[in-house]
Queue: 2 jobs
Job 1
Amino acid sequence: MGIDENFASKPLMTLLLAAPRGFCAGVDRAIRIVELALEKYGRPVYVRHEIVHNQAVVRRLQSIGAVFIDELDEAPPDSHVIFSAHGVPKSVPREAERRKLIYLDATCPLVSKVHVEAERHFATGHRVILIGHQGHPEVIGTMGQLPEGTVVLVETLGDVENLAFPMGEKLAYITQTTLSVDDTAEIVTALKRRFPNIAGPRQEDICYATTNRQEAVKAIAPRSEAVFVIGSANSSNSQRLVEVARKAGIARAFLIDDASGIDWSLLSDVKTVGLSAGASAPDALVAEVIAAFRARYQLTVEEITVTREDVEFKLPRALVG
């Protein structure tokens, strides 16, 4: 094997890989549902909204026959339609049935758990407060589990302070699954201070993958001079990873779609870089970023692992039966 004559002239760089990173069980399940549906039913299979928030994933699925649509009226009658991992309002499957569409639901089971919580609280006479980001597909889907106007959305501590309810009204809170763990804890504390009798989830709503990836970024931050998070701009969990890095003191924390998004000029004085990937970013993108660093530096790669993940979710019976 030949020796790279330029290797010795390359600057030194240490790349700290956060682990866990990349695909979670819910994302893996959703993508697999699309792949299996194409195998079973043939092209095309329609997907309402992006199956997960990652452009590389969307482009690959398009290349094998998935057609991404904004609304169900873009799918012909009797066609196969898949709902995204973020979940949908109850009106969507009703509309699919009205239009005689054959649908599969790829909603992450942990998002479905929040839907069940919302319905349980509503059934017991609670006013439901949802902590989340307005306009995010998961928030739209969760609010759409209950009658319009019955869920109150809060995004900030200021929103909590502005809440006003009739005396004695029973309250309960739920959360989007991909939020900042620390920011959400502050909002929950504020809710409990204002409304001491408020009911909460039996188990934490923020999903295990979001929590683990945020903890892993916190673990690499003390040794990192810059941090890159691989993920698309519309990926909530990826955006939160960048925020976590910045709150940990990393001013140079950036979200990138792939290796082409790296501004190498920002690393001229950097010797140690942290790298993570959002829960909807494939491993191939991580490998490309590592290769890009290796092409420019005498690279040492060190993985920092905070926990191991072994979660798996079952696929719909229609695809595996």
Note: The chain has a mean pLDDT of 96.
Job 2
Amino acid sequence: MSKRKLTIQLAGPRGFCAGVDRAIEIVERSLEKFGAPVYVRHEIVHNKFVVDELREKGAIFVEELDEVPEDAPVIFSAHGVPKSVPEAAQRRNMVHIDATCPLVTKVHVDAKRHRGEGRTVILIGHAGHPEVIGTLGQLPEGQILLVENVEQAETVEVPNPNNLSFVTQTTLSVDDTADIIAALEKRFPDIESPRKEDICYATTNRQAAVKALTPNCDAFVVLGAPNSSNSNRLAEVARAAGCPKSILIERASELDIAWLDGVDTVGVTAGASAPELLVQELISTLKDNFDVELKEINVTTEDVHFSLPRALSA
């Protein structure tokens, strides 16, 4: 029986970003240097496949520092942590290694600089996300105001409207964030913006790639974890760009082939913490069920690389 034709449009860039590559390498190098087990506070990146692989190599994932033995090394995740966490590690004389993405660290530095210059700081982001928790925790409680959407931007109360600044989570929707910033700037014309946009290059590039593919796709599949902010945003971007049949899945095994009934062209991408292996796994599954034509479409080339912490780079 012949297979039905299906065109796969593969988005590029997709998958791992420099911050994720660096965080994973930090765990692997730490295991080599210190031996197993090495403890990691929170998932190093939001991807079950990656976390499970590192766990098999000897990493132990915990939620809080008090779960880590005194004599064991601990790594802080790529999302960043409140300032209180490394301070607590120092008090206990623990070996601690910070895997925070340098682009998240930039947001932390900017927030502290703005506050140090006397401005009220607004953080645009999603409540409860580890990156937002880490950024809020760079300053004493209540010194950063969280704004999640346009409605909140239009109603947030600030002590001095003429002395304001904003920073953003790095993994937001570019378009949604632009709307929130516009609402803030309309209310507060003097609000100071970041010197360089906070939404990271990888988030921006992956969303641009999805937008470029969407007009030619009947459906869109995003590979990524359900708790991954940038992966969720990719599925949302596809829907907003005119492809309502868009889903986020972790593995190819979650895809119901019947979902592709009536679909001639499917777009495929992966969030910044999803390995390429999962993309190839999905393509193999589709080839098992369809006569596949594969088209890879790149909107830009990425050559970003972040150096390792000094403790591991020797």
Note: The first helix runs from residue 18 to 34.
